[in-house]
């Protein structure tokens, strides 16, 4: 079964509809995607089905309803599908909580790095704690920022889910712990602690790779 939820960014009730169907897609095994009506696929659906409003629910190419379905109504529509095993993130336009956490933590690390640079006059002396600031910026800001965007955007473009649930939160913890430990090691303690932090961050990046791999390579096993 293929379920498409047609939405628009200006639609006030589309987020509610997406929340309902994202929940159902995490419970049942079916092909679910959120389609923005501004995309070529969305425009084709609007023209073919002569849609006048969104959110609109399309099941196997046929219009099944408009507006926001309740969880009970949504479960009834997909009642014939099997239960989903494991956790996955459906393709949607709203940020998942874990993706939002990655981006928020990246902003926090960016503020910390900027504050440290400002505290030292913008340019640290050669014998100053430059490695700590550099690690705060690279591991604290850039890495979680890329991870948060990647796990949100890649499923949209590839139309395949990624592993979610504890996988994403574990990745978030590893990346942030790695940034903190590496920064402290580079700033105060020394290379041994910095190496431990880099190991944690590398584990977080490895987990990100494992989560995104099935979405990037359709021939791989489906994400669970």
Structure description:
By secondary structure, this protein is of the alpha+beta class. It folds into two domains: 76 residues, Glutaredoxin; 120 residues, no CATH class. Helices cover 59% and strands 9% of the residues. It contains seven helices and four strands. It has a four-stranded mixed sheet, with helices on both faces. Helix 4 runs parallel beside helix 6. It starts with a strand and ends in an 8-residue tail after the last helix. The C terminus is likely disordered.
List the helices and strands and how they pair.
Elements: E1 2-7, H1 14-27, E2 31-36, H2 40-49, E3 56-59, E4 62-66, H3 71-77, H4 97-119, H5 130-158, H6 166-189, H7 191-216
Parallel strand pairs: 1-2
Antiparallel strand pairs: 1-3, 3-4
**In total, how many beta strands?**
4
The first-to-last residue Cα distance is 17 Å
Number of separate domains: 2
Order of helices and strands: EHEHEEHHHHH
Strand order of the largest sheet: 2-1-3-4
Profile the largest sheet.
4 strands, mixed
Count helical runs. 7
How large is the radius of gyration?
21 Å
What proportion of the residues is helical, as a percent range? Answer: 55-70%
What is the averaged pLDDT score?
A: 80
Low-confidence stretches: 220-224
Silhouette: elongated
Structural class: alpha+beta
Report the sheet-strand fraction.
Answer: 5-15%
């Amino acid at each position: 079964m293929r379920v498409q939820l047609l939405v628009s960014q200006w639609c006030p009730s589309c987020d509610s509809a997406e929340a309902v169907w994202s929940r159902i897609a995490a419970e049942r095994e079916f092909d679910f995607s959120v389609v923005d009506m501004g995309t070529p696929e969305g425009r084709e659906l609007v023209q073919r089905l002569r849609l006048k409003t969104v959110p609109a629910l399309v099941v196997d190419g046929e219009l099944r309803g408009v507006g926001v379905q309740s969880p009970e109504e949504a479960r009834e529509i997909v009642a014939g599908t099997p239960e989903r095993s494991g956790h996955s993130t459906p393709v949607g336009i709203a940020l998942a909580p874990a993706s939002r956490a990655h981006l928020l933590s990246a902003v926090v690390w960016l503020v910390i790095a900027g504050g440290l640079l400002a505290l030292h006059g913008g340019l640290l002396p050669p014998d100053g704690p430059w490695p700590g600031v550099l690690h705060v910026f690279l591991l604290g800001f850039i890495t979680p920022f890329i991870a948060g965007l990647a796990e949100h955007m890649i499923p949209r473009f590839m139309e395949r889910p990624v592993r979610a649930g504890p996988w994403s939160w574990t990745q978030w913890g590893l990346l942030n712990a790695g940034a903190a430990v590496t920064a402290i090691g580079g700033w105060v303690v020394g290379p041994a602690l910095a190496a431990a932090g880099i190991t944690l961050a590398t584990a977080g990046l490895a987990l990100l790779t494992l989560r995104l791999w099935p979405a990037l390579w359709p021939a791989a096993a489906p994400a669970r």
